[in-house]
């Protein structure tokens, strides 16, 4: 194999380039064939950090909107990983309203904020945007490898398990390092005297850079390019992780929200007809994706991009070719504005879509049909209030719910819409259903359509031989378990204004690391975590009832109906 591992201060006659180190010669260097990467060291955690390793050629020029390719340039200069990058980002302006709402703002304040952000969004110009976040670059397809010293130093022995983090962020925001510091996760894996795990985190393209699709776009662009970014990174790990002391046969991917939704798409890729996925286990936390199933939806998104480009840049922008020829700053600005204007409330404009190839059908339907890689071991989790953040606080009428559904499901028939609103989620607020108001009803629809039922589909597809947790630390909003996954011991850590409960965090982290190391979340210092089984047994992670079990809240007829995608 072309890639070989070398250690700094190795024999100069064999590896002359390694001897000419511009930095600390005691730190290891890994040769991956096309590049040399030197680690930094965390003395406290006793681990090496090989940061910002390129796994793909720059997705620029003709590779913009195209499938990623392996690096083509060879650079034998030692890279210490100090220069990194994040992909172009975007944030919907409705999130500003949501933030005020959950801080307890009055209706009058919320109405004012909504009017303000709508006015700002309407008047945005590319030249008037603030400077992008530091490190923002189109050349952003990098990953980090964090290795305990004991694992790296025992290279050549049996390989260590590997944990790969795929971040979430609505498919429009986030980065490999933005979710948290994995130091405590790594240390959890060493509590019983084990060497621990190798931790890898990767970037992938976001927004219009990674998630365009549809008939017109696909005439000269590749749909779901970001999923292909992730797949190339996972294949890179399969090829190269042994150089760091890892075992390619013991790779666990973990992701939250869009990260977990991406993992669903990886497991169901090609309808399971293209061999095994490049990992053996998966932990899916609140797996989320919008159901973009039709050419109508995809074409509408692409034409929206063209229309806004014409208004913001010039009327001559009519095609993928024209978008490809824009300079990065201009296209990134366009992405920022389109994402900011995302509508309706709770949506992000961009995300994975059925493309007939990598995504031959919605993952939910592929799982139901048995068209996926069945060899993967699965652990899932979802939170107690997944939909609230994405539900407009102004919802007060039946028309609000109907309008929102027709925006999210644009091809839904009137009869199917009536079934959703009248039978699946009837307007009954006496406590006999899991809601007592129009707002709570709308929130439940969003939660089950976009997030929680996806976890159920994973559990049942894998014949209930899975493990499932229910994150119930109040208020249990979407994303709140991230602070627990990456909790590093500081009990003042804020999680939507609330301190993280260190006991709950320790249990969750041990479950994750036990599963990554053995395929079973059980071990010392944690409550027993039973298999999901046909009775949908789920472990509760909460400030009360920690470790208790209950029937999964998604084991219901509503999720069964959504999985069939009869709205398509």
From TrEMBL:
InterPro entries: AB_hydrolase_fold, CarbesteraseB, Carboxylesterase_B_AS, Carboxylesterase_B_CS, Type-B_Carboxylest/Lipase. Residues 42-562 form the Carboxylesterase type B domain. Its EC number is 3.1.1.-. One of its GO terms (molecular function) is hydrolase activity. SUPFAM superfamilies: alpha/beta-Hydrolases. It holds the Pfam family COesterase. The keyword Amino-acid biosynthesis does not apply. It comes from the Eukaryota. Residues 1-19 form the signal peptide. The keyword Translocase does not apply. Gene3D superfamilies: alpha/beta hydrolase. Belongs to the type-B carboxylesterase/lipase family. This is Carboxylic ester hydrolase.
